[in-house]
Amino acid sequence: MNTQSSHHKSRRTFLGEASCASVGSTALFSTLLNLHLTNRAAAESLPTGSDYRASVCLFLGGGNDSHNMLIPREAGEYSNYVAARDDLALSPDQVIDFNDPNSNRTFGLHSGMPELKALYDSGDLAFLANVGTLVEPTTLQAYQNGSVKLPLGLFSHSDQQMHWQSSVPDRRSSIGWGGRMADLLDALNDNDKISMNISLNGNNVFQTGNQVTQYSIGTNGSTGLNEYDWNEGFRTSVNSLLDYEYSNLFKKTYSRMTRNALDAHAEFSEAIETAGDLTTEFPDTNLGRRLKMIVRTIKARGPLDMRRQTFFVESGGWDHHDDVLNNQAEMLPEVSQAVSAFWTALGEIQMQDQVTLFTASDFGRTLSSNGQGSDHAWGGNQFILGGGVQGGRIYGEYPDDISLGNPLDVDRNRGRLLPTTSVDEYFAELACWMGVSNSSLTDVLPNLNRFYSASSGTPPLGMFAT
User: Which of 236, 262, 245, 258 is nearest to 9 (CA)?
Assistant: First the structure.
């Protein structure tokens, strides 16, 4: 085949086919949607200095059964746990015991997560108990008599994933709290091609703002135009098409955005190459490879001119309606090992104090078994690592009774726990640490003032060192 003729494309062919085949769509649409913040009034209140901070959202998609990640181990509490969980209960030799100084109670961590236990012991990792989406402060009685507003689509995967990522639980929103935070903080960065919000899982609600959205990358970096980097003939042909002065507005805009996407890809790739690889060994798993790419991107923060970044990575497959014990015995160690390697790699580049990783999930799951599985529920447990976290303790309120029919059980036959901490309070802690001012917190978290007063002078949960 004639090489030159095989890569010849008319302008019409190029514009018609690029979005379907040739253009790396993640880079194109990331750049298309990434509008640099121009609201100077907001920028005037931003932190000063050359500090860097990044938050990493690890989303456990499907609804992690976190009652088997964090287990009560006080004698009476553990007995209630065993009775409620039935064939889902972990035996004492399947958990690693530890003490929570906040409550002076003993808890257990799933035995497949010794790396997280070590991070807890070193004071770098904390847990947040019984957190979930809430429209307003809610009691069991108010839930039962219908006198309180509830999250839209409660117990629904799609709705609860959206609510966790948007922090707007009473309506469906395509704008996320990480995106709204970026609308405020992106002016701290000096890069007008690459967003401060970087996703390892494509488009997501969390990082989509009104002005800033995510820049999508893979485990090997950003995605450009097929063959453009290495085929000179193809590159020359594409450049001539992109440099052409189109009269049609759509073609002109499409050409300009494609050029911007290629420029962003080149800049990102060069920065990653300049920063170099890591010596830390990561597990050869999907999560391990993606967390490694996040650390490599953080390492390249200088060439990328970044002072604030968010990252989103999803670990899916947590909808365990069956075979919970065997599934978690395989999946929880993968999380623990990947997160531990992530922390070690941050130490390698001396960035542990500047980065926080936090988990989120659709919802908690039922305490009761449906026959070796658990179903959709509400409140669950999460963990937070690094970035000034006052670790080695559990925040929030872990119920002292998780038997079926306990005072937080909204379904007395199933064990669905009413959350005692709202996602708004959880995320407010992270937003403040990232540099959002108290006066701007409700711009990022519109539902927050129902649970916390930004003028109180105290943090919602106190997870971070002041």
Answer: 236
